Amino acid sequence: MPTAELIAPAPTAALAPADFLHDYRLGWESRHASLAGRKEVFMGKAKFGIFGDGKELPQLAMARAFQNGDFRAGYYRDQTFMVAIGELTWQQYFAQLYANPDVEAEPSTAGRAMNGHFGTRLLDDEGLFKPQTATKNSSADISPTAAQMPRLVGLAYASKLYRLNPALHPFSDFSVNGNEVAFGTIGNASTSEGMFFEALNAAGVLQIPLLVSVWDDHYGISVPAKYHTTKQSISAMMAGLQREGEGEPGFEIFEVKGWDYPALVDAYQRAAAVCRTQHVPVLFHVTELTQPQGHSTSGSHERYKPKSRLLWEEKHDCLLKMRNWLLAEGHATADELDALEKDAATTVKRARTAAWKAFVDPIKDERDATVALLDRLVKATGTEHALAETVNRLRTNPAPIRADSVRTLRQALRQVRGLRHPGRRAVQQYLEQLQGENADRYNANLFSQSAEAVGNIDEVPVAYADGAPQVDGREVLQACFTANFERDPRIFAIGEDVGQIGDVNQAFAGLQEKFGELRVTDTGIRECTIVGQGIGAALRGLRPITEIQYLDYLLYAVQILSDDLACLQYRTKGGQKAPLIVRTRGHRLEGIWHSGSPMGLLLTTLRGIHVCVPRDMTRAAGFYNTLLRSDEPAVVVECLNGYRLKETMPANVGEFTLPLGRPEVLRAGTDVTIVTYGSMCRVVLEAAAQLAAEGISAEVIDVQTLLPFDTEHLIADSLRKTGRVLFADEDVPGGASAFMLQHVIDEQNGYQLLDAAPRCLSAQAHRPAYSSDGDYFSKPNVEDVFDAAYALLSEADPERFPDIY
């Protein structure tokens, strides 16, 4: 018997028949919503549907154990649960199915995610955290299988920190003594993902209040459990997690049939009690569930389920089983249950109708306004003109979308581009209005809009005392982290080797001893859930620094960073934020897996996260000071070969801030601009000195951050002087160098300022070879930079600068 069986009494005795009937009706409302949702997709009113039918009862039972302050990191079939906790209405459910971009109508994602992706609005209208302890909370869902699990670890870990760190007790808007449980949900097939196993292992090691429910309907789309799970049972497979007794490390494991309502309610109460009071993680395996409509609207489960399975599912439908239980226990008559089911269908139908009207009416209004404006142009050009046909197609469109109005306006303006008529300007103004409104609907909120956004952090210049000591670069970071930890008790750091030894490069040396193990904490080798641990904790108001030992190892966590953190503000339209700092180090060191600079990979996958590339530890400290005062996520890539180089210790090491997006001119010049960052700055500066000896004046610019990139167009200002540009970096060809070139040549109109074709100097197409020779021949060196810059001048003045080779 699991230890948790001894924790809480059976709660069904405290529930009255009215509670049972309430849940039964809500279960049927959810079922009708699933059935109606599928029909809406097949009618063309929505593009895709994935529904929670067959999972109603366990979600109702879970909702009864879910308390204010708790958090969910879930699965896209949790509609019943979200309605049961009062954080979703059926009208909002259908608004999401139709992709209504109005955040009031669809508060989870403002129509940006497909249906079944739920989340509560954790931020107020100013972009600041609302109190979380008086509400039931859900982190914003994502589709990638098992990707909710890393974040779930962090949501639960925050409760541990809030309970055990007295300095956090005043933050009562985020926790009440760490009593909050993080509830996770996942399908049985998704438990095959490595993230699931990594997250469970982390939860067991950390002993945190994480309760993960596995909805087991035996299939993963068309693939049955025998191909997914050893022993075809995740609870049997993970039995070794079961703790041996109270106070011992490990999990509590429950296995309950998904159609057994009273057993589900009892078990969830017991599971949540042990999780909440003792901070013991729980694996809750819900078996014998069904999926009446199959996986989604993309196909039919009759294609792959045998008739015997379909017949079994029909007999074991959880709502049918609950009906039989209610009748057998005398809690209701058949007529009463029939009436509840009928009322449930009516409720859902009304919600669906209201949601569709709220979605389509504004679109039709835009269409009508567009047609009215364009009719004036038709009168001016004549009905025989192609414009009349264009307008009539929009007028007679029975199911317009917003793009139809904008597309027609753009085509109309193209057709009358030479016409002088007052109606043409009116059409152009309306198009500009719609383009602005749609930019807000579909493109806004990639980054924070609050007063704590990076761009709103006051710049504080670095200051140096007379006779300031020269120290190792790592000591600057050590002093910076110390000052920030003293300033803000919400800051903590986790990662491999950051604790006892103070990280492999010693920037955290002594901090665990000074601030304690809760603030500076070693972890196992698990980059994905290190980052997830930070995301979840940041969602709950804490300020984590998660360290990834080498930039090469960040690849383990790129999926979570991209699919979860980078798009969090965007996919909630400013409803949630997680100001996580990912600290790592890269560029030059030794060999294939310890000296990578995959910046292009980060730049294309992490839009929504700032990417800082400081050339030394003083610059890194300035970025940390800025980021720890802001509410936006960032990756800071420190230079691997810079920790032992000497730097001057700033007098205000914990206070000075660096703005993001502003390059720095390291060396003024007039002949050629060389744009670079990170460890390449030292290489380029040495090359610039050699170029100067040959009469070539190179202006060296350190971009400092790649996201954002040169927001003030300072590089273009340099090109006005030099007329030539070389982009140099350690990424592969076409990586960050191409990114920088595009920004300067395209966005900054730098092509107009050039007297020669722009050039890029990158590393070789392969990863760097081991040894100093491997580094020299794999990555750009001083001679490479010299030759590339010299060639630009030789092209213009071959007599003065004859070919070298």
TrEMBL record:
Q: What is this protein called?
A: Transketolase
Q: What are the UniProt keywords, alphabetically?
A: Oxidoreductase, Thiamine pyrophosphate
Signal sequence range: none
Domain (Transketolase-like pyrimidine-binding): residue spans on this chain: 471-645
Q: Which PANTHER family match?
A: PYRUVATE DEHYDROGENASE E1 COMPONENT BETA SUBUNIT, PYRUVATE DEHYDROGENASE E1 COMPONENT SUBUNIT BETA
Q: Where are the transmembrane segments?
A: none
Q: What does this protein do?
A: E1 component of the 2-oxoglutarate dehydrogenase (OGDH) complex which catalyzes the decarboxylation of 2-oxoglutarate, the first step in the conversion of 2-oxoglutarate to succinyl-CoA and CO(2).
Q: What would be an example GO MF term here?
A: oxidoreductase activity, acting on the aldehyde or oxo group of donors, disulfide as acceptor
Q: From which organism does this entry originate?
A: Hymenobacter coccineus
Superkingdom of the organism of origin: Bacteria
Cofactor(s) named in the record: thiamine diphosphate
